[in-house]
Structures are given as C-alpha cells and as structure tokens.
Amino acid sequence: MGEPPRRLDPTMDRASAAVVLRCEPRQVGPCVRCRGLTVRYGQQAQPICPACTCERSRGQGRAYDQ
Ligand SMILES: [Zn+2]
Fold it and tell me: Which top-level group of life is the source organism from (predicted)?
C-alpha cells in the first residue's frame, strides 16, 4: 500500500515542511514522539507526526501512551 510517510528532520526549515505537510509554516512543530516536524498547531493539529502515526497503526516501535 505504498511507502510510509517520510519523517521530516527537525532541522528542516518550516516553510519547506509546511509544503510537505500541506499546512501553514506557523502550524509546524516537533512531533512529541520523534521530534520530527509535523502539524502541531491549528485545526488539524497532530501531536504525533504522520510517520509515527503510521508506525503505530502497523504495531511497530514502542507503545505510546497519549
Ligand atoms: Zn514522529
């Protein structure tokens, strides 16, 4: 079913990350799990990045409590 979402490096600039995440640069922030960039603020805010969400749904990696 395709490639898992790519993890965005925390050193990546917000403008570039925003393009990948399809959000505004001001909405970009670090994932609480891996510190990679994700949509942290705004209406579609996700505290966990797409890459971590994908891993969790596949049952890989550490269990994550809230
Ligand atoms: Zn993450």
Answer: Bacteria
Q: State how many domains the chain has.
A: 1
State residue 56 phi and psi, 5-degree precision.
-65, -45
Q: Return d(Cα 47, Cα 36) in angstroms, integer.
A: 11
Ion ligand 1 residue ranges (Cβ < 5 Å):
31, 33-34, 36, 49, 52
The answer to whether residue 46 sits within a structural domain is yes
Mean local confidence (pLDDT), 15-39: 96
* Domain assignment present for 8: no
What is the spatial distance between Cα 2 and Cα 21, in angstroms, rounded to a whole number? 17
Domain extent, residue 21, equals: 14-57
Query: Ligand 1: distance of its center to the CA of 7 in Å?
Result: 7
